[in-house]
From TrEMBL:
One of its GO terms (cellular component) is plasma membrane. SUPFAM superfamilies: Ammonium transporter. It comes from Gossypium hirsutum (Upland cotton). It comes from the Eukaryota. It is found in: Cell membrane. This is Ammonium transporter. PROSITE patterns: AMMONIUM_TRANSP. The keyword Membrane applies. The gene is LOC107921894. It holds the Pfam family Ammonium_transp. InterPro entries: Ammonium/urea_transptr (IPR029020), Ammonium_transpt (IPR001905), Ammonium_transpt_CS (IPR018047), NH4_transpt_AmtB-like_dom (IPR024041), RhesusRHD (IPR002229). It is a multi-pass membrane protein. Belongs to the ammonia transporter channel (TC 1.A.11.2) family.
Length: 470
């Protein structure tokens, strides 16, 4: 770029790359935290999904993540950020505008001592991982072209509404005093409900895939899970928007809760199934990460342990007991169980935040104590009304996010279905990656026995001969 043709924002001295209002430490940490969150998706969830599914779906599953991340980042800068954090248009939505202008990007953001460009990046990777989590419910059968259309529509007409309502100071739930430190509602409850709803509309995998769907590479899955866990340091540690003691508290609480949740899930597997399951341990890890997210910097360490025990046991019970006995749950094919690991764990974390949130820590994060007080402290400080009020606000948030995502996701799926099928054909699902993309994950070590199966040849011919024999 020709530097002489670039006009600086009016509040930025051309000779001053770091303006007086910017805190270099805050800006550096925010960029680092955003990158850690980005790594949770690319490559974290990309390889977690790619390793968790059958070999024939490894490419498709990873590609859904890669596409979602790229699409969201572009749409976020073009219009999503201003819908979510711009000037209020209505109580749950900002005015549409771009976040691409150099003047705007280099001005100070409304929530910290760093430029808008940093905030757009930070919030963009949060929006991206939400769509990536939704993909987890749809692996192994969604038409990739339908997914390409679903992603920008859901970002625009669901995510931005929730983000503005809860995180933007002008949002109606933010004004009510809802506690959602880093996305228990905006990201996890939303993605869990939206993923389960979309799974209903897309339909199930093939019967044989539902009955037996072993991971094709557990070590790869664990590598992705490890990136997800460590990346959560930026996920929760970046949300004070300042290098502070609250950020440090959020980080250590995140790891404490996650460890407690993983160990709780592991013990339950050992007690009831007589075997320690590595897949179960990963599920417990995820529910712990999700549960602490809305509370990370506003609860004490002992509360984080209690939350970890709850997140390792309650979602375990809903997944291992209720889900298997419920006819409704059995009808919906939620591939990665996002309803349990994200929707239930996220709402659990939101409610527990309303119980354990400390007034002093709320002041550090929100800048005011206001009505922000957990029920536990409300009873102890004789502020019973405020404590119960906080629980009520947290429950209102759960209801709002659940209803919004059921309605918006259903409408989007119906609209997409007008233009193309949501689900692959039976023949394409029989083959997997080669039918969908003409590629396979492990071509050198391909399962030749599968290709000798007469059903494979039949499916290949019905899919239009898209599969090349090697």
């Amino acid at each position: 770029m020709n530097k002489t043709s670039f006009s600086m924002p009016p509040n930025l001295n051309p000779d001053q790359a770091s303006p007086d209002w910017m805190n270099k430490g805050d800006n550096a940490w925010q960029l680092t935290a955003a990158t850690l969150v980005g790594l949770q998706s690319i490559p974290g969830l990309l390889i977690l999904y790619g390793g968790s599914v059958k070999k024939k779906w490894a490419v498709n599953s990873a590609f859904m993540v890669l596409y979602a991340f790229a699409c969201v980042i572009l749409c976020w800068a073009a219009w999503g950020y201003r819908f979510s954090f711009g000037d209020k248009m209505i109580p749950f939505w900002g005015k549409p505008n771009f976040a691409l202008d150099g003047h705007y990007l280099m001005e100070q953001t409304f929530l910290g001592k760093f430029p808008n460009a940093t905030m757009v990046y930070f919030q963009g990777v949060f929006a991206a991982i939400t769509l990536v989590l939704i993909a987890g419910a749809l692996l192994g059968r969604m038409n990739f072209y339908a997914w390409m259309l679903f992603v920008p529509l859901w970002l625009t007409f669901s995510y931005t509404i929730t983000a503005f309502s809860i995180w933007c100071p002008d949002g109606f739930l933010a004004k009510m005093g809802i506690i959602d430190y880093s996305g228990g509602y905006v990201i996890h409850l939303s993605s869990g409900v939206a993923g389960f709803t979309a799974a209903y509309w897309v339909g199930p995998r093939l019967t044989q895939d539902r009955q037996r769907f072993p991971p094709n590479n557990i070590l790869l899955m664990l590598f992705g899970a490890g990136l997800l866990w460590i990346g959560w340091t930026g996920f929760n540690g970046g949300d004070p928007y300042v290098v502070s003691v609250d950020a440090s508290l959020a980080v250590i609480n995140t790891h404490i809760c996650t460890a407690a949740s993983l160990l709780t899930w592991l013990l339950l597997d050992i007690v009831f199934f007589r075997k320690p399951s590595v897949i179960g341990a990963v599920q417990g890890m995820i529910t712990g990460l999700v549960c602490i997210t809305p509370a990370a910097g506003v609860v004490q360490g002992w509360a984080a342990v209690i939350m970890g025990i709850c997140s390792g046991s309650i979602p375990w019970f809903t997944m291992m007991v209720i889900h298997k006995r419920s006819e409704m749950f059995q009808k919906v094919d939620d591939t990665m169980a996002v309803l349990h690991t994200h929707a239930i764990a996220g709402s659990l974390g939101g409610i527990l935040s309303g119980i354990f949130a400390v007034p002093k820590l709320n002041r550090l994060f929100y800048g005011t104590s206001g009505h922000y007080i957990g029920l536990f402290y409300g009873l102890a400080d004789k502020r019973t009304h405020d404590g119960f009020r906080q629980i009520g606000v947290q429950l209102v948030g759960v209801v709002f996010v659940v209803v919004l995502n059921i309605v918006s996701t259903s409408i989007i799926c119906v609209v997409v279905q007008i233009f193309m099928p949501l689900r692959m054909s039976e023949e394409e699902m029989e083959i997997g990656d080669e039918a969908a993309h003409g590629e396979e994950a492990y071509a050198i070590w391909g399962d030749e026995e599968e290709k000798l199966d007469p059903k494979y040849e039949l499916a290949k011919s019905k899919a239009g001969g898209q599969v090349e024999m090697v």
